[in-house]
Amino acid sequence: MNNVYVDTSAFLAVLDSDDSHHNKAKKEWAELVFSGVNLYCSNYILVETFALLQHRFGMDAVKLFDQDILPIMNILWITEPLHSRGVSAYLTASKRKLSLIDCVSFEVMRHYDVKSAFVFDAHFKNQGFECLP
Fold first, then answer.
1. Which residue segment(s) compose the domain that 113 sits in?
2. Which pLDDT value is given to residue 97?
């Protein structure tokens, strides 16, 4: 496991001490950071994470995320074809709790051959990805 995609659910679990997954997330985050694996997320994950952090915790949390976490992340920028494939998968799945951002993430992971995700979202496992923790 050299490459790990990080989902918004993992970022929030790491940063929110009230999150039910917080302790597992903090431990997994530390292991990933210190193991030297390549950590990836898409710019769509950043938009979602920034918005949720701002809404739940305010701009100080967004600034902390931007200054302390983003520098160690590899950002995968969504192209028009990846976006289109994600939209197609989203509309085809037609599941109420499956988001467009999740569907685009699946396409990004497949495109860049990233097989593992740090995530607290069962949809990733359902798509055949290894989920951490």
1. 3-132
2. 87
6 close to 73: Cβ distance less than 8 angstroms = yes
Which tens digits make up the pLDDT trace of 96-114? 889 999 999 999 999 999 9
Residue 1 scores a pLDDT above 90: no
Closest CA to 104 of 69, 71, 78: 78
- DSSP assignment of 90-127: HHHH--TT--HHHHHHHHHHHHTT--EEE-S-HHHHHT
Which residue's structure tokens are 């051959």? Answer: 113
Q: Residue 75: enclosing H or E segment and its boundaries?
A: strand 74-76
Please state, in angstroms and rounded to a whole number, the distance separating the CA atoms of residues 7 and 10: 5
CATH code for the domain of 66: 3.40.50.1010
Give every strand in the sheet of 3-6, ordered side by side.
74-76, 38-42, 3-6, 116-118, 130-132
Q: How confident is the model at residue 59 (pLDDT cuts 50, 70, 90)?
A: very high
Q: Which two tokens stand for residue 17?
A: 């001490």
- Say what the pLDDT of residue 121 is: 92
Number of domains present in the structure of the chain: 1
